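Summary for the steering committee. One of the milestones for this cycle was to obtain a three-dimensional model of the protein with nicotinamide-adenine-dinucleotide bound, which we needed before selecting residues for the alanine scan. The sequence and ligand used are listed below.
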Amino acid sequence: VKLSSSILAKLPPEVAGPKYDRAALKAGIVHFGVGNFHRSHQAVYLDDLFNAGLGHDWAIVGAGVFEGEKVGRGKLQEQDWLTTVVEQDAGHMSVRVTGVMIDFLMPGAAAAIIERLADPAIRIVSLTITEGGYFIDPASGVFNPTHPDIVADAQPEATPKTVFGIILAGLMRRRDDGIVPFTIMSCDNIPHNGHVTADGVIGLARLIDENLATWVSDNVAFPNGMVDRITPATTDRERGILSSAFGLDDNWPVFCEPFRQWVLEDRFTNGRPLLEKVGVQFVSDVAPYELMKIRILNGGHATIAYPAGLMDIHFVHEAMQEPLVRGFLDRLEHDEIIPTVPPVPDTVLEDYYQLIEHRFSNPKIGDTIRRLCLDGSNRQPKFIIPTIADRLKAGKGVAGLALESALWCRYCFGTTDSGVVIEPNDPSWDRLQTTARAAKDTPAAWLAMEDIYGDVGRSAPFVEAFAHALEALWADGARATLTRYLAGNL
Ligand code: NAD
C-alpha cells in the first residue's frame, strides 16, 4: 500500500502509526533542512511525545532555501507529510510511521516563510542545514560577514535567500509586532552549534543595523545541543526493503540505527516541548558532551572513511570488518583522539568508544563510506583539525592524525588505490582535487589551505608527519601504509 493519511488505520501489523489525532495538531516549530537526519531524530522524539499525549501544539512545519528541496517536499506532500522510520541492527528491526510534520512551506518562498515565522504560534525554529550552512570561515571558526550571500541578504529591501536572512526577517516582524521571539535551535554537528548560529544571525543583523543586532543578542535564545543518530541517505535499496518486507510504499523513508541521543541546554525564550519525557537530557553545559561526540564519533567516522574509500569498500560495516581499517580506528582513537577529550559527566569515555565501535559495525544500517567521505572541507576543520591543534599545543605526537589527513588528501586526488575514479564528493571538490594533485609532489601544498588548516598547517612536526604519511600512501598504497602504522614502523 502507498503511504498516506488514509491508510494510517490499516497499516501492516508490524508497522506502528501515530497514536494521536494529526488533524488536531498545531504548529509550534518551523524546521529548516528537512533531510534524513531531522526525520530520524527530532521528528522521532516529537512523535514519542505526541504518542504520550503531550505537546500537540509543537507540530513541525518544514522549510528550506534551496530549489532542490522541492523534490523532497513533493515526495512528502504526496504522502501527507508522513515519514516511515526504520530502525535496524543485527538483532532488531522496528518500523513506525511518524506524523509530526503537518506542512512544508515551498522551499525558497521567502515571503511565505517569513509570514509563518511571524506567527506567534511558532515558538522554535530548528535547523539541520549541514556543517557548511553556517557561513563559518573554517580556519578561524568565526562567522564570515563578507560571504556574497550574506552581503546580498543585508541589502536594504533585499528578499533574503539564506536561512539566516529569512530567520532575521521573521525576527524583525516579531519585534515590530511586539511578539516574543522564537528560540533558534541548531541540530547540526558543529561544536557550540548554538553560539555558531547566534554568530550568524547576529552577524547578519549587524550588517543591517547595530540596534537590531543588540536586540537579537538580548532577546533570542540559541541553546547548544549535541545530537546523535547515524542516519544514511535514503536510496532505492531502502525503499525496496520497506516495500518487500512490509508491503509499504514510502517515497522517502528513513533508515537508521536504534541508538539515539540528544543533549540540550535548557534556554528557550518562549517555551519548549517536554522533551525530557522522551529521553532528551537537559544540561546546563553541552560542551563536554559535544566535544566527546564530535571528536570520538565524527572524528572516528573520518578515520575509517578515507582508507576504506581508497580500498573500494562500499558500506561502513564492511570497513569495520577490514582489520586494517578497524585497527586504524582503534589505534588512532586510543593513542591520539580520546586523550584530548576532557571528562564528561556520568560517562566513561572507553565505554562510549566501545559503543561507537559497535554502532559503526551495525550490518543492517546500510551507511556508506561515500557518505562519510562527503564534505571533508567542512568536516575536517570541525572533527579532526582541532584535535591535532590540541595535541600540538600539548607537545604530543600526531603521527596517526597526520596519516588521517594524508588519507583525506590522497582520496581527494580522485582515484582509489585500484584506480577507480572517485566522483566529486565535496562542495569544493575542484579545488581539493587540484591541491591534492600538487601535493603528490609537494605535500606542503595541501596544508597551505589556510582556510582549512590555519596554524596547524604551519606546525613543523605536523607538516613533517603529514608529508611522510602522504609519501608512504603514494609509494605503497593505503593497505601497506596502514599495516606499517599498526606495526609501529611508519
Ligand atoms: P541531508 O542531505 O538529508 O539534509 C540536509 C538538508 O540541509 C537538506 O534539506 C539541504 O537542502 C539542507 N542544506 C544543505 N546545505 C544548506 C545550506 N547551505 N543552507 C540551508 N540549507 C542547507 O543530510 P542529513 O543526513 O539530514 O544531515 C544534515 C545534518 O544533520 C548533517 O550535516 C549534520 O550536521 C546533522 N547530523 C546528521 C547525522 C546523520 O547521521 N545523517 C547525525 C547527526 C547530525
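Key point for the committee: DSSP finds 21 helices and 14 strands in the chain.
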